[in-house]
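Exam revision sheet. Question 4 asks you to relate a sequence to its structure. Input first:
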Amino acid sequence: MTRAILASVGVLCASAFQPAANQPSSNESDPIVYLVAGGSVYHRKDCISVAGKVLIERRLSELGPGYQPDSTCKAPRRSTASPRPITSTTEPSDPEVYLLAGGTVYHQRNCAELQGKVSIPRQLSELGPGYEPHSGCQAPKRAVRPSPAPVSTFSNSGSGGAGRTLPQVSYQSSDGTLTVTVESRVTEANDVWWKYSWKVTIRNSGKRPQIVSGRIEFQDADGFVIETATVPATRIDAAAEDTVTGFELITTASAVNVAQLAGRIGQPKE
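Answer key, structure tokens:
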């Protein structure tokens, strides 16, 4: 009887320490997978596809939707269960993102692409239009803001600044010996400045050479001066014509309001 009782106790003790066959390990729900730097396919550690390569270790839950399992080693697939509810209904209006030196693609902090590399943190609002989000880690995209209505004060209004031409201005000096023609158009434009290239043609119908100089005024539609360009002193021989060229950079916020020119080269005839 005593031996039977002891045998029963031994069986119970052994079964108490036996792991349940169907109980998953702590890592099965979020296994470790392996990536090659820059790749979007993840593998098991012993996968022959990545043998001899430097691998980046990640939890499966850390990878964004842009990453896919390798079919060769049958890497684990992510659960298709519904995602956990988000506790906050709002996202940061200006999240922090990360860049590699010299790169134009930004990432989330835990992106596998940044593993072992020096990354530069930036607020998303600090990045210009040339930067793009990394699809692998699903970096946040910038909100698309509606474009402002175009300001059209030019004689040949159209979309964009480059190519817009201001009305030509011609006048004579007070003594009638000089005829001055001023022309200008936008030859380059970006979000910071517009480049107004200008050309001044001066004809001297007098009997002796003249040295002339002055300035060009870039005005708004009401005649208020937005910017000026200096025309350097130029010698014009008698009965001759000469051309002076240059350009003026005007900030975009002001450049869109330029509507007309005024020449102050010599004394305009009243």
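Marking note for examiners. Confidence is low (pLDDT under 50) at residues 4-26, 82-90, 149-159.
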